[in-house]
Amino acid sequence: MEVNGIVLSPDPRLRQECKPIEEITPEIEALAERMKREMFENAGVGLAAPQIGELVQLVVIDTDYESADDYDPIVLINPVIVEQSDHLVPFSEGCLSIPGVSCEIKRPDRVVVEAYDLDANLMRYEAEGGVFCVCLQHEIDHLHGITMFERLEPAQRMHAMREYQEALRRGAKPGETE
């Protein structure tokens, strides 16, 4: 199921491993632009290609914008976490594909990610604590068929899934966390 251009859980596309991008084509550039637009229109801070039904390793992130004037997402092609801390911290996460709920997820508090940009330059992003660190991990999870539900303990997962079903019944849309 899709709402506002966003694939919603439990759509099977969200549980699939995405293919690496072999070449940056005009189609990949257009996909990145579409993702930027969809993320902004749904008030997101990160979006992975499977969340709009495309099973390729492409992510867009902008955790700092306040309006269209300062909206400038980074594009990550084939992102890989190359370093991460052993120290896990809880963070309340939402997801455009799981509207109406937020979940407390424990993740490493520091990561280093390598990815290509649209000019085929290898980029390195270091993040410690905060939304950008969490967003990198959350979106890369999507590329490997992992949603935030899979990061929860079984009892937490059951509770979160019940809340999600109730949120859908209330008509929750992407970008709404509660």
**Rg, please?**
15 Å
CATH class: Alpha Beta
Low-confidence stretches: none
Strand composition percent:
25-35%
Overall pLDDT level: 96
Architecture (CATH level 2) name: Alpha-Beta Complex
Whole-number tally of structural domains: 1
CATH topology, by name, is Peptide Deformylase
Number of DSSP helical runs: 3
Main β-sheet description = 5 strands, antiparallel
Give the structural class: alpha+beta
The CATH fourth-level homologous superfamily: Peptide deformylase
Shape: globular
Question: Considering DSSP H and I runs of 4 or more, what fraction of the residues is helical?
Answer: 25-40%
Explain what the structure shows.
It is built from three helices and nine strands. It is an alpha+beta fold and 178 residues long. The protein has a five-stranded antiparallel sheet. A hairpin with a 5-residue loop joins strand 8 and strand 9. The longest helix has 16 residues. It is globular. Keywords: Hydrolase, Iron, Metal-binding, Protein biosynthesis. One of its GO terms (molecular function) is metal ion binding. It is an enzyme of class 3 (hydrolase). Its cofactor is Fe(2+).
List the helices and strands and how they pair.
Elements: E1 2-3, E2 6-7, H1 26-41, E3 46-48, E4 58-61, E5 74-84, E6 88-93, E7 103-108, E8 110-116, E9 122-128, H2 130-143, H3 154-169
Antiparallel strand pairs: 1-2, 3-4, 4-5, 5-8, 6-7, 8-9
